[in-house]
Amino acid sequence: MSKPNRASRWSLHGMTGLVTGGTRGIGHAIVEELAGFGARVHTCARNEAELYKCLRSWEKEGFIVTGSVCDVSSRTDREKLMEDVSSVFNGNLNILINNVGRNIRKPMVDFTAEEFSTLMATNFESIFHMCQLAYPLLKASGTGSVVFTSSVSGFVSLKSMSVQGATKGAINQLTKNLACEWAKDNIRSNAVAPWYIRTSMVEQVLANKEYLEEVFDRTPIRRLGDPTEVASLVAFLCLPASSYITGQIICVDGGMSVNGFYPRHD
Ligand SMILES: NC(=O)c1ccc[n+]([C@@H]2O[C@H](COP(=O)([O-])OP(=O)(O)OC[C@H]3O[C@@H](n4cnc5c(N)ncnc54)[C@H](OP(=O)(O)O)[C@@H]3O)[C@@H](O)[C@H]2O)c1
């Protein structure tokens, strides 16, 4: 293998990427980070007005970003999305960021069959199918990188998150399996596992000041994460600079998942 120079190891110029759920939160930051490193990016979301607002704003910033309205929990929407991606990028895709995921917080005994299916379909079945659809495009590109947005809930137990945690645990295992199954095609597979990141998904639960204090108590770095702090790791995992890293799930959690017992007041 020829050794690329430093500039090309830290650049995504000439590469193409799909980021699901790019209009807000972590996905939005990932779109900007990948585009900032020179990639052409396609993204999707359900809300058309919000999607087009983002696309206009990225265009003004000089980023090359296109988008599709798509609900990734729908099989037909996913197929249409991948047709769009194939058409925009001429059948080549270097980067697939499976970012969309949702949460329903309640004790596991209270889950209805429908709620269980909804979470499984949105968080796991959809990304499994997205990977199947993207595979020929990733392979055709010659250098592929898949990154999943997992969660610390896939490693440690979190209150009222047994189903969501199970979907993220499944993602973590898929990350490892794809790393081995697709290495022959020069496609890497990694995941990022955030703890609390300040986004629209968690603003309601974090509006509770006492709960927020408990989050800070449990987090060695004593603050929430910012979406850009996840996006920078995702970009790194897509850069040629990380070309020997595959099958890894990396926490972006201010130390939360390694925190045994460090009392705040001792
Ligand atoms: N924020 C955290 O603290 C945290 C912690 C751990 C893990 N995570 C994970 O990080 C990922 C992103 O979370 P976030 O906090 O950035 O969420 P967010 O702020 O709620 O943003 C979600 C994005 O995904 C889009 N989206 C949601 N459902 C979709 C669907 N069914 N089809 C297509 N697009 C959809 C949304 O647009 P539309 O609503 O218009 O569709 C929006 O662009 C999730 O997988 C989540 O589990 C987040």
Automatic annotation (TrEMBL):
<protein>
    <submittedName>
        <fullName>Uncharacterized protein</fullName>
    </submittedName>
</protein>
<keyword id="KW-0521">NADP</keyword>
<dbReference type="GO" id="GO:0016616">
    <property type="term" value="F:oxidoreductase activity, acting on the CH-OH group of donors, NAD or NADP as acceptor"/>
</dbReference>
<dbReference type="InterPro" id="IPR045000">
    <property type="entry name" value="TR"/>
</dbReference>
<keyword id="KW-0560">Oxidoreductase</keyword>
<dbReference type="InterPro" id="IPR002347">
    <property type="entry name" value="SDR_fam"/>
</dbReference>
<dbReference type="InterPro" id="IPR036291">
    <property type="entry name" value="NAD(P)-bd_dom_sf"/>
</dbReference>
<dbReference type="Pfam" id="PF13561">
    <property type="entry name" value="adh_short_C2"/>
</dbReference>
